[in-house]
Amino acid sequence: MTLQQSIDKQLPSTRTTELDSICLKAEVIPVLAIQRIEDAVPLARALFEGGLTVLEITLRTDCALEAIRRIKEALPQASIGVGTVLTPAQYRQAEEVGADFVVTPGTTEALYRYGVTSPVPMLPGVATVSELMTGWQYGYRRFKFFPAEASGGVKALKAFAGPIPEARFCPTGGIGINNAEDYLALKSVMCVGGSWLTPKSLIDAEDWDAIRSLAREAAERFHH
């Protein structure tokens, strides 16, 4: 099958539906950089019990892949995304540990080509209209907008909606409790991602109750 046939067959409708079914389950996707493997399951469980059922675990730490394996096993009902995927090799690692979706900070032609044929859907990272148009050529309609605040924030997303109104986004980067609502008010925003729900001080203290409370507050505040 040629690349174009893969695009025509799988995208955009199938992949869009797959990503919508994940991203529309949660207004907020906590982004986790797990430093200690023993924190993985209790941290994920606290967020899940607080009402946040879609989690992104970044590959920025040494134990990330093992953490994802353990979380998938402990919380089979959660949707687990693998973040900071930079290469097709890392994309394959995400497939092997059972990722439900893959998230990239930016996107290369190699990642788009791999993503088109992968059984695991990708939420490609974009920061400009040109990058958005590249993804569009590959059949993608759902994107991560990163780094959101540094790239123009809500105003940029409103501008994107002019030429490409069908695109939908999960903005991440510089988003917290005080500005998440501004993003979620946009028609083009499916959900937001952020690390404010997992403060390092609470993780270091293993204060899972406090993290569960933060998750519950976010789940209730930003409910569709």
Automatic annotation (TrEMBL):
Pfam families: Aldolase. Signal peptide: none annotated. This is 2-dehydro-3-deoxy-phosphogluconate aldolase. PANTHER family: 2-DEHYDRO-3-DEOXY-6-PHOSPHOGALACTONATE ALDOLASE-RELATED, 2-KETO-3-DEOXY-6-PHOSPHOGLUCONATE ALDOLASE. Keywords: Carbohydrate metabolism, Lyase, Schiff base. Coiled coil: none annotated. It catalyses: 2-dehydro-3-deoxy-6-phospho-D-gluconate = D-glyceraldehyde 3-phosphate + pyruvate. PROSITE patterns: ALDOLASE_KDPG_KHG_1, ALDOLASE_KDPG_KHG_2. Belongs to the KHG/KDPG aldolase family. Its EC number is 4.1.2.14. InterPro entries: Aldlse_KDPG_KHG, Aldolase_TIM, KDPG/KHG_AS_1, KDPG/KHG_AS_2. The keyword Lyase applies. NCBIfam families: eda, PRK05718.1. It comes from Halomonas gemina. The lineage of its organism: Bacteria, Pseudomonadati, Pseudomonadota, Gammaproteobacteria, Oceanospirillales.
